[in-house]
Amino acid sequence: MYRDGVLEAEGFPVEEVSARLAEDGVTAWVDLCGPSRPELELLAEELGLHELAVEDALQEHERPKLHRYDTHSFLTAYAVRLDRATGRLATAEVDAFLTPKALVTVRADDRFDIGLVTARWDSAPLLAGSGVGFLVHGLLDVLVDGHFEAVQALDDHVEHLEDMVFDERPHTTEVQRRSLAMRRSLVTLRRVVLPMREVVNTLMRRDLEVVDGPMAPYFQDLYDHVLRASEWTESLRDLVATIRDTQLNIQGNRLNLIMKKVTGWAAIIALPTAVTGFYGQNVPYPGYDRPWGFWTSTVVMVVLSGGLYATFKRRDWL
């Protein structure tokens, strides 16, 4: 509980929330990790939360959104974490009820470290007087920073994929596997990041009365970060698709080069075969019973094969 921007109390029972909020200059934050339906319904009764918002908080896999009700707003957002070894993205849903004097966060489990949020609040005590707007900004700022870190890590993975594609030794299977993992992670990240533009933009509306004057520049900066993260995500999706197309083109070029070399060597080998086949016919020919005839055929084979090799080499066919 904050009173006039100063932290005053912590760890009090949920049953006391409504009584404390009745006091002047008070703002409260309530965090519920893995609450049961009765626990959440008790808090809903204390704060007058809408039953549909309570139902959404109890269900997982809701899309990021901000719904407005008569007495409060309901926010859904996601924290993300990227496994740098595999490139897989893990998400954790965070729901929040925004009332004029309280912020209630609901988490299904502890995959999202709420301590990062409290540390963010503690780092800016001068803004605590903005009440719920200050608390919401700290929460969203931590979430968006996580989005940025995930996008940056995915960007590093994509750069590594580019190096693998143009490596002298092809890593076809590995590139395909990593490309598929990147595409899946980027699709998931896109579903999380893109709706945040609408969420933050709606929060900044004056009629919601969440963002006051001192907090307006901070929410604008947060909105800019959301835009950058969403645009970066879109560009990475296009880049992964381009990498896959490039890999297929390189494979085709390498196959053509191999076929060109094989064809060149086949032509070189065909000449000695033709000469020896001709001299092996069952009719007399010049030098057929003399040593110089053998050496003549040998010289013809070497000269013709060498000439073809030099021609193909000059044309970069070998």
Automatic annotation (TrEMBL):
InterPro entries: CorA_cytoplasmic_dom (IPR045861), CorA_TM1_TM2 (IPR045863), MgTranspt_CorA/ZnTranspt_ZntB (IPR002523). The chain crosses the membrane at residues 262-280, 292-312. It is found in: Cell membrane. One of its GO terms (cellular component) is plasma membrane. GO terms for molecular function: cobalt ion binding; cobalt ion transmembrane transporter activity; magnesium ion binding; magnesium ion transmembrane transporter activity. Pfam families: CorA. It comes from the Bacteria. It is a multi-pass membrane protein. PANTHER family: CORA FAMILY METAL ION TRANSPORTER (EUROFUNG). Belongs to the CorA metal ion transporter (MIT) (TC 1.A.35) family. This is Magnesium transporter.
